[in-house]
């Protein structure tokens, strides 16, 4: 019978900017997303979001009733230190103390991420992760969090998805600072974030707190669209940048010779370079020996074709299926695979990619200790009909991913939990509010919550630890 271990976490994920709202309350300072989404022409912002800031008690109570026994939250740096580097905001600390206590009171174990895209605005203007001074500010902010919450929070992640920060901010241009095709800056950002991650990890380890620490990477499968060597090369290069560069940093404690040579080759084609400082490799090496887990976000895989042209990208941020374009100079083009269905936002639905990635971690990074699937889920335009939301396509998506996950676990990959993206509907960074992921539907006009069919299904799985099909539940 297909069963998860008794202590397997059936969690739900959130992120501060996407759910909290309360953007100007209790001394919270602005973050880069506040400024970015207040520019003329912006279609939405996170000022109110899902109002989790005021409604978290109800949300956690309901999470518990639906069998969700873990939650990913992130701390808004500019709520804790308004300008990122100055005085600590005690109202911010009080909010997170209350939130963490409420998680524990409801049996929903908190998994806390220190940085989920929302750098304080003044540090962002000051160069964000291109400016290494900001690493010192990040380490200090992390210390404040460990000092105040480290007694109760047992799972910490330094960063959420440095690849998204680099790719979306500097290559695609749909995240602040909205720069396109600047691969050299993207690589520099990734390297600097790796150093920031390593320093915070080593700080945590030096404090002897009763928990574990790791990082959350988004790991995208990269598959050649054909077996032509040039298409295989394109997949290899895209993988190098998106996955291998930072997996090497976190788990090998430095960049392997092949990784470094390939990245430098990509940089040469894009007329740039990146710098490492003395001592960087030593820090990475020490941190890689101490990292407790890999948080793996997996949504999709890309199919790569050789591409010789100039960089050209169009981001589908509205759910108008089939509008995406992605060609990157020196790397390749991401193209449709007629055999693989996609979401309305053109994300290929490819669970095999998750399975392959899990085995790859075990094979290539054997010191990984354990994995949590820290995000996986399906963006879908849910229909709200007479108070009911039948999100069967989402259930099918998650089912297929849990199925390969269970298989990988049975084959020896150590995975201790799954956090569905997302616990409840919330803001999607570059898409807005119509790209829904939640187990709970949020009516953004009233802030009312409604459990979707997936919530009832998830509850049954969490209770039984069995992988169930959507039609195996009676309650809905
Ligand atoms: C990840 C982020 C999440 C979440 C998710 C879905 O990259 O960590 O914060 O947003 O992707 O992405 P999107 O909202 O763009 O559909």
Structural write-up:
The structure is a single chain. This protein is α/β, with parallel strands linked by helices and 476 residues long. The protein has a single domain, classed as Alpha-Beta Barrel (TIM Barrel), CATH 3.20.20. The chain is built from 15 helices and 15 strands. The protein has helices spanning 16-19, 32-36, 52-65, 77-80, 90-105, 121-125, 133-149, 162-172, 183-206, 229-252, 257-269, 280-290, 351-364, 392-410, 453-464, and strands at 9-13, 70-74, 109-115, 155-160, 212-218, 221-224, 293-297, 301-305, 312-314, 325-328, 332-335, 371-375, 415-420, 440-443, 448-451. The strands form three sheets. Strands 1-2-3-4-5-7-12-13 form an eight-stranded parallel beta barrel, surrounded by six helices. A hairpin with a 3-residue loop joins strand 10 (325-328) and strand 11 (332-335). Helix 10 crosses helix 11 (257-269), helix 10 (229-252) packs across helix 12 and helix 13 packs parallel to helix 14 (392-410). It starts with 8 loop residues before the first strand and ends in a 12-residue tail after the last helix. The mean pLDDT is 97. 6-O-phosphono-beta-D-galactopyranose is lined by residues 15, 18, 160-161, 164, 218, 297, 375, 379, 421, 428-431, 435.
Give a brief outline of the structure.
The protein is α/β, with parallel strands linked by helices.
Cα separation of the termini: 25 Å
Q: What is the number of domains?
A: 1
Indicate the overall shape: globular
Helix amount: 40-55%
> Under the CATH scheme, which architecture would be assigned?
Alpha-Beta Barrel
What binds here, in terms of ligands, is: 6-O-phosphono-beta-D-galactopyranose
């Amino acid at each position: 019978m297909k069963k998860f271990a008794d202590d397997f976490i059936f969690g739900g994920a959130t992120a501060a900017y996407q759910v909290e709202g309360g953007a100007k309350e209790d001394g919270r300072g602005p973050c880069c997303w506040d400024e970015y989404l207040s520019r003329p022409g912006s279609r939405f912002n996170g000022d109110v979001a899902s109002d989790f800031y005021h409604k978290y008690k109800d949300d956690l109570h309901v999470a518990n009733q639906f069998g969700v026994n873990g939650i990913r939250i992130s701390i808004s740096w500019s709520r804790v230190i308004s300008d990122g580097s100055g005085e600590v905001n005690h109202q911010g600390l009080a909010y997170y103390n209350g939130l963490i206590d409420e998680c524990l009171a409801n049996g929903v174990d908190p998994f806390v991420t220190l940085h989920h895209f929302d750098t304080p605005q003044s540090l962002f203007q000051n160069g964000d992760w291109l400016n290494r001074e900001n690493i010192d500010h990040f380490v200090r902010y992390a210390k404040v969090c460990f000092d105040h919450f480290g007694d109760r929070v047992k799972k910490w992640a330094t960063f959420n998805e440095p690849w998204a920060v680099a790719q979306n901010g500097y290559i695609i241009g749909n995240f602040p600072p909205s720069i396109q095709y600047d691969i050299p800056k993207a690589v520099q950002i990734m390297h600097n974030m790796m150093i920031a991650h390593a320093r915070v990890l080593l700080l945590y380890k030096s404090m002897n707190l009763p928990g574990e620490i790791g990082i959350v990477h988004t790991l995208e499968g990269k598959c050649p669209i054909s077996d032509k060597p040039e298409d295989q090369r394109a997949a290899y290069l895209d993988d190098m940048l998106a996955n291998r560069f930072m997996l090497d940093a976190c788990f090998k404690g430095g960049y392997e010779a092949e990784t470094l040579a390939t990245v430098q080759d990509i940089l040469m084609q894009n007329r740039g370079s990146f710098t490492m400082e003395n001592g960087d490799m030593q820090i990475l090496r020490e941190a890689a020996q101490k990292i407790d887990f890999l948080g793996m976000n997996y949504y999709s895989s890309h199919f790569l074709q050789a591409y010789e042209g100039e960089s050209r990208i169009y981001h589908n941020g509205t759910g108008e299926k089939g509008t995406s374009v992605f060609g990157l100079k020196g790397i390749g083009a991401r193209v449709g695979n007629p055999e693989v269905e996609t979401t309305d936002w053109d994300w290929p639905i490819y669970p095999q990619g998750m399975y392959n990635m899990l085995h790859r971690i075990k094979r290539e990074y054997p010191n990984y200790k354990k994995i949590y699937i820290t995000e996986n889920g399906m963006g879908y335009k849910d229909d709200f009909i007479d108070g009911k939301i039948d999100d069967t396509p989402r259930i099918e998506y998650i089912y297929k991913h849990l199925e390969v996950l269970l298989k990988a676990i049975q084959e020896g990959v150590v995975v201790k939990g799954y956090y569905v993206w997302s616990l409840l509907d919330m803001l999607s960074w570059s898409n807005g509010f119509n790209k829904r992921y939640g187990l709970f539907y949020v009516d953004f006009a009233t802030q009312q919550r409604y459990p979707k069919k997936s919530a009832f299904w998830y509850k049954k799985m969490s209770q039984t630890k069995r992988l169930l099909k959507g039609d195996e539940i009676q309650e809905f």
